[in-house]
Amino acid sequence: MYLRISKSDLAGIPPKLTKEKVAGLIDHTELKPHVLTKKIHSLCDEAERYGFASICVNSGRVKEATEYIRAKDLDVLVCSVVGFPLGQMKIEAKAYETKLAVEDGAEEIDTVINVGKLRELSTAKGQEKETIRRFLLNDVGEVVKAADGKIVKVILETGFLTDEEIAEGCRISVEAGAHFVKTSTGFGPMGALPAHLKLMRETAGRKKGVKASGGVTNFLDMVRCIYACANDEELLNPVYFRIGTSSGINIVNTVSWLKYTDNWFIDEIPCRYCPSNFVSKLPEEIKDYYVAKCRNCQILTPAEIEERRKHHKL
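RESULT FIELD:
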């Protein structure tokens, strides 16, 4: 449930990084509903200036982003989210949204899996289980087909899922032909937890990509994500690892300060990143799942466990 990362573990990552390498891992993201066209234009300009992997926008903004990029002759890829942020649209609607986004110029597609169906899969049996699994394969597969060869990343919204459901979501995504699995929309709980990222990498394998998204707002967050699922030269490239964030400029600029101080790297405070911190935002069954894991934590010392129980009245 919880991946405890030491100061020395964290400090081992930055020597592998440059500003250019960090920027090339980032999908420069703007998905809020109140965004103006001028913000989409500035997103494109920033992506060119810093060398980000892509910009990531809502499907309704793809065309104007593409037209602006072409008019200014920018070297910028456009990624579009579809079925966003809930994933509860009909399969045909997700596929059609994908088709339109590609026609408008999207080179990559981030689609939200039907999270409710994925949760139901874990308790279904027999024919019902097979029916739900086929549904989920189609949910992802039809988007892959409509994307017509473009990169497809599947958002699992891991904060609403058990470890088994996260793993099964990865297996279904890979089987359906997706290129990446991705943690979250940024609108759900938890975001990109290292423990989830580690599980996703182990399940999806080294030949598929993992994207950390949700709550990656600073350089330390990024380093923790890299440690969890991209901690070698082969995986530390945009083909196999991405970060979705609206804080990309801040993260890239921080790289320059590393030669002056290593104060970024401290031993983590126990439980700071534990999923049990988010129980107030979770469905009852998922809340019970994480609280039970918290009570039986294998990471903390007995004294730390007792302190946590007192604090959270578990």
